Amino acid sequence: MALISSKEMFAKALNDDYAIGAFNVNNMEIVQGIVDAAAAENAPLILQVSAGARKYARPAYLIKLVEAAIEDTGADICLHLDHGADFEICKACVDNGFTSVMIDGSQYPFEENVALTKRVVEYAHDHGVVVEAELGKLAGVEDDVSVDERSAKFTDPEEAAEFVRLTGVDSLAIAIGTSHGAYKFKGEPYLDIERLKVIHGLIPNTPLVLHGASSVLKEFVDMCNEYGGSVPGAQGVPEEMIKEAVKHGVCKVNIDTDLRLAMTAEIRKFFIENPSEFDPRKYLGPGRDAITRMVRHKIKDVLNCSNRK
Questions:
Q1: pLDDT in tens, 43-78
Q2: Is 170 a catalytic residue?
Q3: 36, 76, 82, 156: which one is catalytic?
Q4: pLDDT (tens digit, 9 = 90+) per residue, 18-34?
Q5: Closest by CA position to 173, among listed 142, 202, 141, 131
């Protein structure tokens, strides 16, 4: 039971055509809900921390929560920095015990992205930490990351191969149609699976990552709306599309919005049905349980990583 790197996780996933869920964490109940699900399914697990999570909960608390989860369950967990904006934040997370960091230079020209990523790779590898980078841009919003839909850019396969060669990065987040947030598609959902196949063919030994891959499950959207919420028309990536992507080199699937919707739906329901209650444990508990149920479903039915630990 330890904080571990994702290197061995990805090697197994790449070989056996399954993916590992990378779930964003913000507080104790979210950590517990996710870890309990992974333990029940005997599945490998990545917990990731975004800029918003660091600002809200503070890194020291999040690291200790993950360490507590390891002690409590005996799980091996990869602790990952999600969307590191610069070298300094990546270095700080490496120095503070993270076992994986993402440097997101996707907003820069290719050459600048390469230079920044290579610098992070060199430092992280010297400290036994793996690095994810991003090439191409996703539409939508995730914490402090905002990309206008008009400027969203799918990953170029040839550039992806050259980027991996030049940087030595361990995994690559690609843009093939996913987006951040609860409103991923205005029309019919679409992922460029053919582009994914070409990328995987050019860099078959590089684990690929899908950001913005929540499915925005209808049951939670409906429950939110039924109990006073307002998320009309929310639409995510159909789970069948995620399952297809996993067959072509996608080893890490990032999930955040689905966690938020599951917890919020249960809490809204509790407040409406129990208007006199004001004990946070009474409503955070059901929210935590909803996360566990949702994550078990993702692990077992979508990512195919049950009993892969």
A1: 999 999 999 999 999 999 999 999 999 999 999 999
A2: no
A3: 82
A4: 999 999 999 999 999 99
A5: 131
